[in-house]
Design brief:
FAD/NAD(P)-binding domain; Fumarate Reductase Iron-sulfur Protein, Chain B, domain 2; alpha/beta; 18% strand; globular; five-stranded parallel sheet
């Protein structure tokens, strides 16, 4: 057995450190100032800009692009941060190709939109590199709010509340804040520990304390938080992963894609991260794409995404699908796993072809087998350990448009809550809007619970 080789066929050190550094370099390198100016010149600065409507946080896109065009990136950044305090990360990870850039008039007319995401990154990176914070905290109100979960929704909520003068304590289950921004995004999208740098920058507003290793059900109870605070915001994410319904699903070599991505994001040495020679990823969303592409970048020879429906039904955008295929990932559609084979560890996966049947899926009985020494589950996540007393809908916490739950004084947002897409930018909008409703409630400006 060669050095780094494991009994299952999963190995470390498939590529050199130099190749790994190249593979995991920035997917969209930042603009130089002159490049940003040229890109900004392409904007028509539409009065009724469809790109603004398409942005879940409602950033005034024509305004910030004009500010870049006229040589004021700091002003552009403030315009962005007023609506989206995590605008730096969203510029890196938002599926702009299906949001603001898809709605761009240039895209409609020419098939080439203004590169809004990269322009947003240029502005936000410029200000963050200066180490300054564009906002000043209001006078303390004496109100205390607990935020459970330091992901995008929790951070956005906490920042807006602190900005308005409230004292906020964030309880985070993991060792680091950031949520999916820290643990769940492909490493080539957020390089140089940007997620942590963004959190540190955000905390400059003051009035926010983060307690890590603090989770509901582990010495922390919702009732106690309500007693000790004037309001509570839940942004606890989706901790469970849907089970793979196939024979042999628990065999060695099968794991959750989210765990693989988190391990990769926290790895100090990518060469020490084991990956299979033949990798199969089950699923069709962004998690599946990220796991598959990163497997290839780590040196897996054959990587296949297996999705049970047609390609047009995949949760991942066409841009992400094309990115995967450009890296050598094969996408198989209308197939679902029925069995995993191997003597102690997975060696093959058996897939059955499917056809659409009135909105559902029907197995055809025809199967194929693929070599597989590593299989990742990316078939959706579910809410786990929701506090008692909360109404649920569709497996998530039921909330109003402003994030109010069925329990007075408790709000929720992000992936754990009903409504919206499971996107970083949507989570930011939900956290921000809940914060404004919490503020109105605490200060007597709106309906009190």
């Amino acid at each position: 057995m060669q050095k780094g080789q494991m009994a299952s066929g999963i190995a470390t050190g498939r590529l050199s450190a130099e190749m790994l550094a190249e593979n995991f370099s920035d997917l969209h390198p930042p603009y130089a100032p002159h490049e940003a100016a040229v890109a900004a010149d392409r904007c028509y600065f539409c009065h009724d800009a469809p790109c603004v409507t398409a942005c879940p946080t409602g950033i005034d896109i024509p305004l910030f692009i004009r500010q870049i065009q006229t040589g004021h990136p700091a002003g552009a950044a403030r315009t962005i941060f007023e609506q989206n305090i995590l605008g730096g990360m969203c510029a890196r990870v938002c599926p702009t190709e299906t949001l603001c850039e898809e709605a761009c008039v240039r895209e409609v007319a020419e098939g080439k939109p203004v590169e809004i995401g990269r322009l947003q990154r240029h502005a936000t990176d410029t200000v963050m590199a200066q180490g300054t914070h564009p906002f000043q905290r209001a006078a303390p109100t004496g109100k205390k709010v607990a935020v459970v979960g330091a992901g995008p929704a929790g951070l956005a909520c906490a920042h807006r509340l602190a900005l308005l003068g409230h004292d906020v304590t964030i309880h985070e289950a993991r060792d680091k804040p950031g949520g999916l921004n820290e643990y769940g995004i492909a490493a080539y999208k957020s390089t140089h520990d940007f997620a942590r740098a963004e959190v540190d920058w955000l905390l400059q507003i003051g009035g926010i304390t983060i307690e890590t290793g603090s989770a509901l059900g582990q010495g922390l109870a919702l009732a106690g938080l309500r007693d000790a605070h004037d309001a509570v915001f839940l942004s606890i994410g989706l901790g469970g992963v849907n089970a793979l319904q196939a024979d042999g699903a628990d065999i060695d070599g099968v794991r959750d894609a989210v765990d693989f991505i988190a391990e990769l994001r926290q790895a100090g040495d990518l060469a020490a991260l084991p990956v299979g020679r033949n990798v199969v990823v089950i699923g069709g969303g962004m998690t599946a794409i990220d796991a598959a592409v990163q497997s290839r970048l780590l040196g897996a020879e054959n990587v296949t995404i297996a999705y049970r429906r047609g390609q047009d039904a995949m949760g991942a955008s066409r841009f992400e699908q094309d990115l995967a295929t450009s890296k050598g990932v094969r996408i198989l559609t209308n197939v679902q796993p029925v069995a995993l084979h191997g003597n102690g560890a997975v060696r093959e996966i058996e897939l059955e072809y499917t056809v659409s049947d009135g909105g559902g899926l029907k197995p055809t009985g025809e199967t194929l087998r693929l070599a597989a020494d590593q299989v990742f589950r990316a078939i959706g996540q579910r809410l786990e350990n929701a506090p008692d007393g909360l109404d649920l809908t569709g497996g998530k916490i039921a909330v109003t448009d402003t994030g109010r739950t069925s329990i007075p004084g408790v709000w929720a947002g992000g992936d754990c809550a009903s409504g919206g897409d499971d996107l970083t930018v949507t989570a930011v909008a939900e956290g921000r809007d809940a914060a404004m409703d919490i503020h109105d409630s605490l200060m007597g400006c709106g309906q009190k619970d």
